[in-house]
Design goal:
Elements (H helix, E strand, L loop, with lengths): L5 E11 L8 E11 L2 E7 H7 L4 E3 L5 E4 L1 E6 L16 H6 L9 H14 L2 E9 L5 H17 L2 E7 L11 H6 L3 H12 L6 H15 L6 E4 L4 H4 L1 H14 L3 E5 L3 H11 L3 H8 L6 E5 L5 H10 L2 E4 L1 H6 L7 H7 L3 E3 L12 H11 L12 H7 L2 H6 L17 E4 L2 H4 L9 H8 L5 E6 L2 E5 L2 E2 L4 H13 L5 H19 L9 H6 L2
Parallel strand pairs: 1-4, 1-5, 6-7, 7-8, 8-9, 10-11, 11-12, 12-13
Antiparallel strand pairs: 1-2, 2-3, 5-14, 14-15, 15-16, 16-17
Helix pairs in contact: 3-4, 3-20, 4-7, 6-21, 7-9, 15-16, 15-19
C-alpha cells in the first residue's frame, strides 16, 4: 500500500520526456517527486526540496535517473542454455533440443530471472513461457510463475503457450517421420508425436484462469503466448485473438524469426506469415511479434497499417543465425518496435544496456547520410516504444507528471571515470557506456524493488542458491539426449533440402530506406 507522503528521487542527470515532446532531454541536479506511486512533478532538486520539505529523498545527486526499462520479449530461464550445456545453433534443430534442459521449479526460475532483470534496470517484461501440455501440470506451472512475478515487484506480462502442431519440422511432421530410418522413426514418433499436449480448449481455459487470477494482482498480467502460428494453427490463432480482445489483454508470438520460417509460410501458404495473419484478421495493436527478422516491405506496411508491434531481439537473432532484422525500414514505416533480450543476449549475461548498444550499432548503414538509429531512437525502444507495445504508453516509459513512478538510478562512477567532458551528452554516455553492474536502485510504482544492487521483495541470493542446488541434484534425461543427437542430422538435412530463393541481403534493404 502507498501512503500520502512524498518521495524525491534525486539525480545528477534526470532523463525526462514531457508529454508531446518527441525526444527525451536531460535535467541537471534535478529530482522526480513521487506520491502514491505516481510522478507528481519533475524539476530542479532545490526547488522541489523546498516545496516538499518533509519528503524522503532517494539518491545523493550523483547518479543518473532514467525511466524503467521495458524488456519487450523474454524467456525467463534463470539459467541460460549455455549454462545447461546447450550451444547456439540454427533455430529449428536447436529448439528441438530444449528438453535437454533440466527441470527448474517455476517459482524459483522466475524469481532468479526477475532479480537479474531488475539488476539491469528492467521494470517491465513480456515473458513468453511455453509449457509441455494444456493440462493440470501446465496450468500449475504457469500459475506459479504468475505469482512469482507478483512476488518479485517487477511488472510481469506472462504470455503462456503450448505447441500443438509442427512438433518436429514446420508443417511436415508426417513426411519427415516417414523419411527416417525405421528404428529412429519409432522412437521419434513416441517421444515427439505421441505425447499428449492436451486440447486447444484446455489451453484457452488455462489462460483465462490466469487472467482471472491476475486481476487481483497489482503489477502482473496474463497474456496469450502462442509459440508461433505454425505451432498452434489458424483456428486457435483466431480464437486467441477473439479471447484477447474479450479480456483486453495482449498476445505475443514468434513470427518470421528464421530463414526457414519465412520459407515454410511461402511453401505452405503461398504468402508471408504476416500477410496470412492479416487475412485471418488477428493483427491489432494488442498483438506483438517476437523477431520478425524476415519481414518484407509488404509485411512492414501491414504492421504499420494494423498497429501490430515488433520486439527486436538482435542478440538472439545473431546467436541463432536468424539474421538481422530490418530495423531501419520498420522505424521509417512507423511500426512500434520494442527491444527484447529473449533470454539469449550476446554476452549471455542479460544486460539490457548491452542489448541497446548492439541494436544501436548493428543497424548503422555504410554510406554518409544513410539510415542509422539515433541514440534517442535506440533508447526509445526500451522506454516509450516498449510502453506502446505493452499498450501502456499513457502510464509507462517516461518520467513525466501523471505516469507511474518506474525509474532506475544508474551509478555514474565507472561511466565517467577518470574523466568526462562537460559537453558529452548524458543520454549518449548512458546508452553507450552503462552496464548491468552500474544499476544501484530500481523503483516500480515508487516502491524500491532493488536497493544496492539486490532485490528487496525476496531473497535473490537464496533463491538462486536453492535453484542451483536443485539443479545439481537433477539428472539429465540421457535417453532424450541420445535421441536428439541421433535425430539432429536428419532435421538439418530436411531443411537443407528445401529449395531456397535468392533473397535480398538485409544490408541492401535497410540502405534503401
Amino acid at each position: 500500500m502507498h501512503d500520502d507522503r512524498t518521495t524525491l528521487v534525486r539525480g545528477r542527470w534526470v532523463i525526462v520526456q514531457p508529454d508531446g515532446q518527441p525526444e527525451p532531454h536531460v535535467l541537471a541536479d534535478a529530482a522526480v517527486a513521487v506520491r502514491n506511486g505516481v510522478i507528481l512533478e519533475v524539476g530542479a532538486y532545490e526547488g522541489l526540496r523546498i516545496e516538499h520539505a518533509d519528503a524522503t529523498v532517494i539518491g545523493d545527486g550523483t547518479a543518473a535517473v532514467i525511466p524503467g526499462l521495458i524488456n519487450a520479449h523474454h524467456h525467463s530461464n534463470a539459467v541460460t542454455h549455455i549454462q545447461h550445456g546447450i550451444e547456439d545453433g540454427v533455430l529449428e534443430p536447436w529448439i528441438l533440443g530444449n528438453p535437454r534442459i533440466r527441470y527448474m521449479d517455476p517459482r524459483l526460475r522466475v524469481l532468479v530471472a526477475a532479480g537479474r532483470l531488475l539488476q539491469t534496470g528492467v521494470t517491465s517484461v513480456v515473458d513468453m513461457a511455453s509449457v509441455g501440455a494444456a493440462d493440470q501440470a501446465g496450468h500449475d506451472d504457469l500459475l506459479a510463475r504468475l505469482h512469482a512475478y507478483e512476488e518479485s515487484g517487477l511488472r510481469g506480462r506472462l504470455a503462456g503457450g503450448v505447441s500443438f502442431h509442427s512438433r518436429l519440422v514446420h508443417r511436415e511432421d508426417a513426411a519427415f517421420v516417414a523419411s527416417l530410418p525405421a528404428g529412429l522413426r519409432a522412437k521419434v514418433q513416441r517421444r515427439y508425436l505421441d505425447a499428449d499436449r492436451g486440447s486447444e480448449d484446455g489451453y484457452l481455459d488455462i489462460v483465462e484462469d490466469l487472467i482471472r487470477v491476475a486481476k487481483d494482482m497489482k503489477r502482473t498480467e496474463a497474456w496469450y503466448g502462442p509459440p508461433g502460428p505454425q505451432w498452434v494453427g489458424d483456428d486457435l490463432m483466431v480464437r486467441i485473438a477473439d479471447a484477447a480482445a474479450r479480456h483486453d489483454v495482449g498476445i505475443q508470438t514468434h513470427v518470421q524469426e528464421s530463414f526457414y520460417e519465412r520459407l515454410e509460410a511461402e511453401r505452405a501458404l503461398g504468402r508471408s506469415m504476416t500477410a496470412h495473419l492479416k487475412a485471418l484478421g488477428v493483427l491489432s495493436p494488442r498483438m506483438s511479434f517476437a523477431h520478425a527478422v524476415w519481414s518484407t516491405e509488404a509485411d512492414i506496411e501491414l504492421l504499420a497499417e494494423t498497429g501490430a508491434a515488433i520486439s527486436h531481439n538482435p542478440s538472439s537473432n545473431l546467436r541463432l543465425r536468424s539474421g538481422i532484422a530490418p530495423l531501419n525500414a520498420l522505424r521509417v514505416a512507423g511500426v512500434t518496435v520494442g527491444l527484447g533480450m529473449d533470454g539469449t543476449t550476446i554476452g549471455d549475461d542479460e544486460d539490457m544496456f548491452a542489448e541497446m548498444r548492439l541494436a544501436h550499432r548493428l543497424h548503422r548503414t555504410t554510406r554518409i547520410g544513410g539510415p542509422a538509429p539515433t541514440i534517442a531512437e535506440t533508447f526509445a525502444m526500451t522506454t516509450t516504444s516498449g510502453a506502446k507495445l505493452l499498450r501502456e504508453e499513457g502510464r509507462l516509459g517516461r518520467l513525466a507528471p501523471g505516469l507511474a513512478a518506474d525509474m532506475v538510478l544508474v551509478d555514474l562512477t565507472r561511466i565517467t571515470w577518470p574523466y568526462v567532458a562537460p559537453e558529452a551528452e548524458p543520454l549518449a554516455l548512458l546508452v553507450e557506456r552503462a552496464k548491468q553492474g552500474d544499476v544501484q536502485t530500481v523503483l516500480v510504482d515508487g516502491d524500491v524493488v532493488l536497493d544496492a544492487g539486490l532485490p528487496t521483495r525476496f531473497d535473490f541470493l537464496a533463491a538462486a542458491e536453492e535453484l542451483g542446488s536443485r539443479l545439481r541434484e537433477t539428472q539429465v534425461d540421457t535417453e532424450f539426449a541420445a535421441l536428439y543427437t541421433e535425430l539432429r542430422p536428419h532435421v538439418e538435412a530436411w531443411y537443407a533440402a528445401w529449395p531456397a530463393p535468392e533473397l535480398e541481403p538485409w544490408s541492401v534493404f535497410n540502405s534503401r530506406v
